[in-house]
Amino acid sequence: MVRAGHYTPDRRTLCDGAPSKVSNELQPRLVLKHGSHLLLLNEAGNMPACNTAGLGLYHDDTRYLSQWELLVNGTPLTLVSCSVDHGYAGKFVYTNAEASGLKRRKLFVTRDVVLGDRLYERLAIRNLDSGPVEFDLEIKLQADYADMFELRGFARARRGQRMLPLHSPGRRRMSFAYRGVDGRLMETRLEFLNVRPDVIADGTAFCHMRLGAGEATDLEVAIRTELHDRHSPVWSLQLRQRIKNAAARVRSFRSNGRYGYASARRRADRRYSDWLARSARVETSDALLNQVLDRGIRDLYLLKQPTPGGEGLAAGIPWYCAVFGRDSIITALQMLPFMPDLAREVIEVLAYYQGRTCNAETEEEPGNILHELRLGELARSNQVPFTPYYGTVDATPLWLTLVCEYVDWTGDLDLVRRLWPNVVSALDFLARATNGGYLTYGSANARGLSNRGWKDSWDSIMYSDGKLAEPPIALCEVQSYLYEAWNKTARLARRLGHTALAADLEGKAARLKASFQKDFWMPDKGCVALALDAHGRRADVVSSNAGHTLASGILSAEQARAVADRLMSGDMFSGWGIRTLSASEVAYKPESYHDGSVWPHDNSIIAEGLGVTGHAASVGRIMRALLDVAGAQADRRLPELFCGYERQQSGGPVPYPVSCVPQAWAAGSMFQLLKACLNLRPDAASRCLRLACPSLPDWLEEVTVYGVRVGRHSVDLRFTTRSGQTRVEVLRKTRGFKVLVTGAVS
User: Fold this and answer.
1) ∠ CA(8), CA(12), CA(16), 5° rounding?
2) pLDDT tens digits for 525-575?
3) Please, where in the chain does CATH 1.50.10.10 lie?
4) Cystine design at 89: which of 83, 114, 201, 741 (Cβ 3.0–4.6 Å)?
5) CATH ID of 278-678, from 1.10.730.10, 1.50.10.10, 1.25.40.20, 3.90.1150.10
6) If phi over 0 gives left and psi between -120 and 50 gives alpha, with beta otherwise, what is residue 7?
7) List of long-range contacts for 718-726, beta carbons under 8 Å, 24+ apart
C-alpha cells in the first residue's frame, strides 16, 4: 500500500498543509454523525479545499479528511436535491454542468453516504443521453489533520509531521497520514470497493468512464480513520500483517454481502431502530409537534459520543462535538421520562471522569464533575487543558440531582450502591466549594472561563448599571440546583440507611432556603437577583436565571408567583420565548449570546418550573412560541439560540449568527415542555406513577405516550383536552402497577 515501504513528509505550504481558520460568519452546513465520526459538508455535499466553514470528516476532534470533491471533466457536478434527515446517512442527486466534450444534464448521479465504523459512499451514474458518453470522473481528496481548536483559531505552538498521500500498486487503496506532536500516528485510508481508478496522483483518483445510451454504473468507496499507538512505526511488519488480515476480512465480508454501502446502511438503520425501541414513543394531534419531536430524537441519537470511559453525549455540532458535563446532565433530565437509559449512560460516564486529585491547570478537584472532555491531538499533548477540564460551578449538583431522579424513575439501586463513593465525593466537593453558605466561583486572579454557570460568556453577569459583577459570584440558579441536590440526595441517603448524612443534608438545604429567600429577593422588581457578588451585593437585573429556581421549591409560594408573572411580562417574553435578560436592562442586547437572546432549553427549564408551580397557561404559551420557532426552520429543529427581538406579525425569529446545529439540550427542549404539561411524578419504589394536575394547552388536543417505564413496569397513557380540561386515559399498564391522577379527569 505504501511506496518504498514508507511515508514521506509532506512539505507543501499553507493551502495544502496548514488548515484555514474557520470563519465566525453563519455558513450553511450539512451534518452527518455517528459515534466518534462527524461529517460536515457544504450545501452541495462537498468539502472544498481550503474552506473556511470547517468542512471535513472528523474523528474525535481531528479532521481526517479536509477535501472531498467530485468533478466530471474537471467541472463540479450540479446539485439537484439532497437529504440528510436520517442524521447518520444522506442522499445527494446531481447532474453534470456543461464540460469539455459533454453537454449539460446528460448524466444523472446519485450519491449515497452512510456513517458507521467508517464512511461508506456509493456513486450511481446513469447516462441520460440517446447516444454513448465518455468522460473523466475525478475524486479530489486532502487530509490536513487539523484539531478542532486549531480551526477555531487556537494558535498552536507546533504541528506534527504530515505525510504525502500514497496508494497501493493495484490502485485499490489510498492513504494519508500524520504524526502528531504526541507521537501518535493518524491515518486516513480510502478503499475503492468495486472500481479500480485508472490513475491516482497527488491525492486525486481519475476514472475514465464510457457509458452507452441509458447505461448506468456505480462506484463504491470506504474511508477509514485510524489513531495508532504512540510512536507506532508508519510501516512495520506488524502493520503489514494487520493490513493483510483486514484485506482477508474484507474479501470474506464482500463474498457474504456484508461489506459495502448497502450492508453498512442496513446495519446503521438497525442500530437506530434498536436504540429507538428502548425509548418511549410519543404521538400527538399536532403534525408540526410530531415532526419536532422526531427530529429531536434523531438528533440525540447522532449526538451520542463514545469516550474511553463510556458512552456520553456531545453538546453540539460542530464546535462542541464532545462530552460536556452540564449539557449532558440537563439533556438527560429533559429526556428522563422518555429515555431513562440515556440518563444512566450520562451518570456513568461522568462518574468515570469525576475529579480524583488536585490539578490547577485543569481545575480538577476530588469529587467535581467535568465541564468538557476533548480527545484530539491538542488535548493529548496538553496544549489545551480539556483532558478533561473541570471549570464549571453547576455540573456537580446537577449530577447528584440526575442520579436521584434516575432512581425515582428506574428504582436502580444497584447502580447507586456501586456509585455511592462517587456520590459522597461529590457531596464533599460541594461542602468545600460553598462560600458563606453559597456555591460560588471565581476570584480576582481566576484562570479559565470568566463565568462558570450555563451563561458562561465573559459579559453575562452584571449589575443594573451594566457593570460586570465582581467575583466570587453566587448565581441564583446554582443555589437552586444545590438546594435540590441536597434535598433529593438526603431522601436517597435515608432510603439506603445513611440517616446521619440525610439529616445533615436536610439541615443544609433548610438553611440555604432561608438565606436565599432573604439575600436574593428583589422586592422592588418582584424577582430573584441574577447573582450575589464578592461583597454580597446583588447583580440586580431581571434575567431568565430566576426561572430556574421555580421547580426546586427554594422560593416561597408568593415569590414563585411573582417570578412566574415577571418572566411572562413584555420585557422578558419576546413572543418567541423568554429572553435571557430583560429588554428594560441597560445591558440588554438582543443579538448577544446571553444578554437578551432566547434559548429553547432555558425556556423549557423555566416551563417545567411553571408547571410545578401551577402556571399551566404560561407553559402552553411558551410551548406554542417555541413550536412556531421550530416551524420556521426548514429542518424543523429548535436552534441552540436565536436573537431576542420582539416577534413581528410576519417573518420568523432572527437567527443567531454562530450556533450549533444540532445541539443536545435544544433537541431535548420540546420533550421537557411536554413533560411540563403532563407533570409526571414517578415512584419506582412504590410501583406507581403520579400525574399531578396534567394540563395540555388548548391548541393541543391529544398526546399519547407509549412505553413509559417506571422501574420494571411500563404504561401507555393518552391525554386529551376539551374546553380547558385535560382527561387522562390509561391504555395499558403492567400488572401490579398503579397510575394515580390528581387535578384531571381519569
Assistant:
1) 115
2) 999 999 999 999 999 999 999 999 999 999 999 999 999 999 999 999 999
3) 278-678
4) 114
5) 1.50.10.10
6) beta
7) 719/677, 719/678, 719/694, 720/696, 721/695, 721/696, 721/697, 724/698, 726/694, 726/695, 726/696
